[in-house]
Structures are given as structure tokens and as C-alpha cells.
Design brief:
The chain is mainly beta and 714 residues long. 5% of the residues lie in helices and 40% in strands.
Length: 714
């Protein structure tokens, strides 16, 4: 441990973007012409990231580019409160905007920030729910999502399309100029449609780019600095260790003492940080920077391309595959340079970015981490790295272990650059020593394993694949008796034009263009097992592809063939992340001639064909007899629905009212089907039928009557 005065610093600049150099201001004061102007501006801003610092002061903030003039009107009345920020992690993409609080309620007025015209309007039970896309005169597009209702003229336009088709789901593009709004004019009311609780989602786009709203027109008074939470160092090859371990090592950064870590070989850094803005304490920061040995690596989230960069989420953000959190990975493989990351020689994109290398005996040297928010507030932290001294190598000889295991050993894998695989084995007998993890029973491709407190890990390079022998864990107990177990997987080269054939019933295609870098896939075919949910009645053999959290540049094609003699009725494809996880329906196409199901999966995991023969459950709910007055109608006919198997099919589940199919919204979070007309039906008695289908083709019907009083009004 080393206690130094410059270990931790917070910076609150007295001035912000107004002090930017004139050359940068001129570059970024663009008129929103070609999209490439954005890239020019962003590259200029990123080039200003400063390098290592000395003393107590943090680096001066890199000047975030101004990507648009200030809005003329805030989108909501009163003080704005952000509940989630730009660049936050979603299931398969970055959050492309900011979420604004509506106080936990629906129905807040939503205003046009600029003079604009409506270019697109959507109604959906998922994703953004009801959403508006408004184009301003300078080329910025403002997107509002999760709305409860549209402005009257737009609502009538959408309602007309819904009634004509009988379907709620709509994606419409009105004629240019049909709907125009002045700055400050109400365009909608906030809600909770689609995903999430009541809030307003707002994006600023230009062309294909989602821009950081706090850099592109939305103003927020922000004087709270961000926080550096933790640093993780991950060894990348055999002979590389952090604190004597082959597994990743994490250290908190919230203290004031500068710790010294022992590093040997090549490691990469993962930095976890968060931004604070008033009551919001878990926002993603704008930029994270690492300075070490004269090299600077920076991750800055000014904008995100919908087409080219959303898929880079798993390559840039940890998502738990390394350190159990959503830290920024300050590393990029050779030949791949995400626009979020910069450092070293900008022209040398072929060189690997962000790798830290130390040899035995190297003296301590400061690694400086700095995090900024979009307003220029910053925090910085130092941690010291040195090479191991004599006697400080990894401990591979002492006996380790926990209480006697329950069940079989657990194998997990991490695919690293240059065909290195980190193999971890847990749930093994206590008191083992001299552990090794080897590739193949008689192979010399293996290394001594280190104990991390709950499992053994080693890095093994996998040349000469495909190979069906998998990995072997070998150790001795205190008496010297040998103990071993096998990880029964087949090793496949990721990024090679070679299909992964686990059996005549399965095939996985992962072409070179679909991976960010070459690596190793661990494949296995398991026997059929009982599903965890009662509605899944049968399962074909399970195709297991690991690591399940390994990032893919594009989807992997997985094909599963139904065995001869298996009934095809109510058969669907399903996926889960791993043992113990919940099986979920996977979208697929089916070829009746070949009996093959084909799915495009954005991640690995376990895949199988399953039978679901249990129909959904439906409970119609009595609607109000009176439609209460308000700015717009919220009267609705609803039914509670549930399905614990393949899930509700939103396309074919709907109400019929008085014999006519009506536009029916499926709210997957509330588990309801809902018909909410622009105007409630006439007073009197009405009949209805609700039919609910799941994705395996099972159906449930229910009928009833509802009455609206003559006093019903809107």
C-alpha cells in the first residue's frame, strides 16, 4: 500500500465549453450537412484528450463537441430530472438517449423543443411504445418514446390506420409537412407504453447517429462530478498474472490511498465509473481515460451509429463477462478500432489498443484514470503497477479448496485474443494442490492453475483446432493422490469459414465477418433434459456454445433439425444463457421439407427445440362504465394474460368488439391485452371476444359483455 496525496482528485471546472479553442468551436459549429461532418467533429474532440497528469490536479477536461444549438424549449415543464443516461447498457444495444422523470405518473405535457415537422410515428406494445420522430430545420431529429397519447391530429391519423387494418402495431411516415409544430407546442403526453415505468425517453439524432442529448441541445445544470468505482486487470495469456492470479483482479477506486498492484505479463484494463446528476446517481459517464507509461487510451461516447456501432456494446462494455459489471474495456483487438476508443497513434488502427505489459522486477509506475461527464466535471484516481520481485510469483503449490462439492464440477470459459482461453473450474474437492488445466488428456498445452478463492483458473492457448478432446483439470490432494475431471467440449475456431457441426441435427455458422476478432468457441451437445417450466413438455438435445457472453459483431446462424418421428405441432426454438437460466422463445424460420429450424442469435448460449402444448391463460377485466373526462381518452377494455412457455404472440392476440376486430395492444410488462380507442364506444351494451395465442400456436378464447352508461363522455 502506498499513501500519496495525489491519489484522488475531483475537478469542478469554473468554465465549461465556452472556453474551447476557436479552431474546435469552428469545426463543431456545423450546419448539419453530411453525416461525415459529425465524424470530423467527434474525431477533433477526441484528439484533445490529454495524457498523464502529475501532482494533485486532474487533467483538464477534453472539450466535448457541441453537436447542436440549445433547444428553445425543454421537452417537459418544470425542472428536468434524468433517470438514465446516454450510452447506458441495454440487453443488446446502447441506450441512445436520456430518460426524463415524469414523477412516476403518465399524462405530462410533452413539448416540441424546436420548430419541427413529424416524419415518423409508431405505435407498439414493446420497445419505445408510442413514439414520435420530429425533424428540425437544422437536420436534428428529436425522438420521444413511451408516450401515452399523441397530439389530437396525430392521434386521429394513427387511429385511422389502426382501425383500417384492425391492428394496433403501426409504423407510419406521414406526408412531408402534414404535421408541423412550433417550438414549445404540445406534441404528446408522457406515459409508460413499451418498456419501462412511466418516463419520457428522448433522443437527438442526425442521420444514422444518435447524439448525446446533453451535447446536442438539451441543457441541464450539472455541477456534480462523476465517480470512479473500480479497476479490473485481466491477464491475456499464459505467464500473465495480476496479483499472482490468472483470473481478473478488481480493486475499488473509492478510497483515498493509492494501492500498488503486482502485474506480470500482458493485461488489459476495465474501468467501472458512474455519473451523478442531482438525485440520479447511476448514470453512465461521458468519457473514461487511462494514462500509463506515456500512452493514453480514451473512451468517449459523443454519438452512436445505429447501423455500425450498436453491436459493439459487448466489445466496449464489460457486461459482466470479465469483472461482473458494466465497466468500459479500454482495449481493442488488432484491426478493429471502435470509434468510441482512441489512443496511441490514431493512424495505427492495426495495432492493439490499451494493453499493459510489465516484466519481473519493473519498478512501480502510476496508472492514472480520469472520468468526465458531458458538462466537464471530472474525477481522477491513481493506482500503481509494478512487476513481481523474487518470491512474488503465483502460488500454485499450496492446498486450496472449499467444503466438499455438491454435484459435478462447474466449467466456465472466457475466449481471449490470439486463441487464448481462460478456463475456470469450480465445485471441486477441498484441499487440492498443484492444479493444472490442460488441453487434451495427453497434451502439453496447459498451465498451472491459480486459486481465486472459489475456483481454479488458467490460460491455455488453443492451436490446431477444431478439437474434440476439450480441457482436463488435474490436481493432487494432500496425500499426493491424483484427482482429475474433464470439460467435455469441442473447440472450434471463431471467425473461420467453418461450420460448427455438433451432430447431424445441429449446425452453427459463424463467418469471419461476424466476429470482432478470432477466438475459440467451446461447443457441446447435451442429452435432452426436463425443462424448468411446466409448460415446456419436451426438449431435443441441447446445443451449448460458450462463452455465452462473448461479443459478436453480427448474429450467429444456428440451425436445429427436428429428429425423425418427433411431432412438429407446437414445436418452437428456445434459447437460454446457461445452466439454471430460464428458457426463452427464440425467433426462427421453419423449413417443412427439411424439418429444420433456423435462428439468428446475437449471442451464444444453449439452444434447443421444445414442445409447448399448454394454452395461455386469460382473465377478462371489467372496464369502467364511465369514461372520465380528460385531455384525451384513457378508457380501455383489458384482459390479464399469461403464458409460462413460449410466450404471448402479439400479432395474433386481439379483441373483437361487437363482432369487429379492434386494434389491440399487448403490454408484456403489465401482462395485459388492451383496446384503448381514440373515443370510447357508444353508451349501451357491447359484446366482446378475446382470443389469445402463444408462439407455439396454442389458443384461448373468452367472451363477455360490458356496458357504458349514457353519461359516458370524453
Amino acid at each position: 500500500m502506498r499513501d500519496v496525496s495525489d491519489a484522488f482528485a475531483i475537478v469542478k471546472p469554473g468554465v465549461h465549453k465556452a472556453t474551447r479553442p476557436e479552431s474546435l468551436a469552428a469545426t463543431c459549429a456545423m450546419q448539419w450537412q453530411p453525416t461525415r461532418a459529425i465524424a470530423t467533429c467527434l474525431a477533433t474532440g477526441l484528439a484533445l484528450a490529454l495524457s498523464a497528469v502529475a501532482g494533485f490536479a486532474a487533467p483538464a477536461p477534453p472539450h466535448a463537441p457541441e453537436l447542436g444549438a440549445a433547444f428553445l424549449r425543454a421537452p417537459l415543464a418544470g425542472a428536468l430530472v434524468i433517470t438514465d443516461g446516454f450510452g447506458a447498457v441495454r440487453s443488446n444495444h446502447f441506450h441512445a438517449g436520456v430518460d426524463l422523470s415524469t414523477g412516476g405518473r403518465v399524462g405530462a405535457d410533452v413539448f416540441a423543443p424546436l420548430q419541427c415537422t413529424l416524419v415518423r410515428v409508431r405505435a407498439s406494445g414493446a420497445g419505445y411504445g408510442r413514439s414520435l420522430y420530429l425533424m428540425s430545420g437544422d437536420g436534428r431529429m428529436i425522438v420521444f418514446g413511451h408516450l401515452d397519447a399523441f397530439a389530437p391530429a396525430v392521434a386521429a391519423y394513427v387511429d385511422s390506420a389502426q382501425r383500417a387494418s384492425g391492428r394496433y402495431e403501426q409504423d407510419l411516415q406521414p406526408a412531408p409537412g402534414r404535421f408541423a409544430f412550433a417550438a414549445g407546442e404540445r406534441v404528446a403526453w408522457s406515459g409508460e407504453s413499451g418498456d419501462g415505468p412511466p418516463h419520457l425517453h428522448m433522443e437527438v439524432r442526425h442521420g444514422d447517429f444518435a447524439l448525446h442529448p446533453l451535447l446536442a441541445g438539451l441543457h441541464m445544470d450539472d455541477r456534480d462530478p462523476p465517480v470512479l468505482d473500480a479497476l479490473t486487470l485481466e491477464p491475456l495469456e499464459a505467464g500473465s498474472f495480476a496479483q499472482g492470479l490468472a483470473s481478473p483482479v478488481t480493486r475499488a477506486l473509492t478510497g483515498i490511498a493509492a494501492e500498488t498492484l503486482i502485474v506480470q505479463g500482458r493485461v488489459r484494463a476495465v474501468v467501472r465509473a458512474h455519473d451523478v446528476m442531482g438525485a440520479a446517481t447511476a448514470l453512465p459517464p461521458w468519457s473514461v481515460q487511462m494514462d500509463y507509461a506515456g500512452q493514453t487510451t480514451t473512451a468517449a461516447f459523443d454519438s452512436i451509429s445505429w447501423d455500425g456501432e450498436m453491436s459493439q456494446l459487448g466489445m466496449v462494455i464489460d457486461r459482466g463477462r470479465i469483472a461482473g459489471g458494466d465497466g468500459v474495456i479500454l482495449d481493442a483487438p488488432e484491426g478493429v478500432r471502435p470509434r468510441f476508443l482512441s489512443g496511441g497513434d490514431p493512424a495505427a488502427a492495426s495495432k492493439r489498443l490499451g494493453v499493459i505489459a510489465l516484466q519481473a522486477g519493473e519498478p512501480a509506475r502510476a496508472l492514472t484514470l480520469t472520468v468526465w461527464d458531458a458538462a466537464g466535471n471530472a474525477a481522477t484516481r491513481k493506482i500503481y503497477l509494478r512487476g513481481p520481485r523474487a518470491g512474488e510469483g503465483p502460488d500454485t503449490t499450496q492446498a486450496h479448496g472449499l467444503k466438499p462439492p455438491v454435484g459435478a464440477p462447474r466449467w466456465t470459459y472466457a475466449s481471449l485474443p490470439d486463441k487464448w482461453v481462460r478456463v475456470r473450474v469450480s465445485n471441486v474437492p477441498a484441499g487440492l494442490m498443484q492444479a493444472r488445466i490442460e488441453r487434451g488428456r495427453d497434451s502439453d498445452e496447459g498451465h498451472a492453475a491459480t486459486w481465486d478463492g472459489s475456483g481454479w483458473s488458467a490460460l491455455v492457448r488453443c492451436k490446431g483446432i477444431p478439437d474434440e478432446d476439450g480441457f482436463w483439470f488435474k490436481a493432487k490432494d494432500k496425500t499426493g493422490k491424483a484427482w482429475w475431471t474433464r470439460g467435455s467440449v469441442t473447440l472450434w475456431p471463431a471467425g473461420a469459414d467453418l461450420p460448427i457441426d455438433q451432430s447431424p441435427l445441429t449446425r452453427v455458422s459463424l463467418l469471419p465477418t461476424r466476429v470482432f476478432e478470432g477466438g475459440v468457441v467451446m461447443g457441446a451437445l447435451r442429452t435432452a433434459v426436463s425443462a424448468s417450466k411446466g409448460e415446456w413438455h419436451a426438449m431435443t438435445p441441447v446445443v451449448s456454445l460458450e462463452p455465452s457472453d462473448w461479443p459478436l459483431a453480427q448474429t450467429a446462424t444456428v440451425t436445429l433439425k427436428a429428429p425423425d418421428g418427433m411431432a412438429l405441432d407446437h414445436l418452437v426454438a428456445a434459447r437460454r444463457s446457461g445452466d439454471g437460466e430460464t428458457w426463452e422463445w427464440a425467433k426462427s424460420t421453419y423449413d417443412a421439407a427439411t424439418r429444420v429450424f433456423t435462428m439468428e442469435s446475437a449471442s451464444f448460449g444453449q439452444f434447443a427445440l421444445m414442445h409447448d402444448t399448454t394454452p395461455p391463460r386469460v382473465t377478462p377485466l371489467t372496464p369502467p362504465r364511465v369514461a372520465l373526462a380528460g385531455a384525451y381518452s384513457r378508457w380501455a377494455l383489458t384482459a390479464a394474460v399469461s403464458d409460462a412457455g413460449s410466450g404471448i404472440d402479439r400479432e395474433t392476440s386481439a379483441f373483437q368488439v361487437d363482432g369487429e376486430r379492434v386494434p389491440t395492444e399487448y403490454d408484456a410488462e403489465a401482462h395485459v391485452l388492451r383496446w384503448r380507442a381514440l373515443r370510447p364506444p357508444a353508451a349501451g351494451r357491447h359484446t366482446y371476444t378475446v382470443e389469445v395465442a402463444d408462439r407455439a400456436g396454442n389458443r384461448t378464447r373468452s367472451s363477455g359483455v360490458f356496458v357504458l352508461d349514457s353519461a359516458a363522455h370524453h
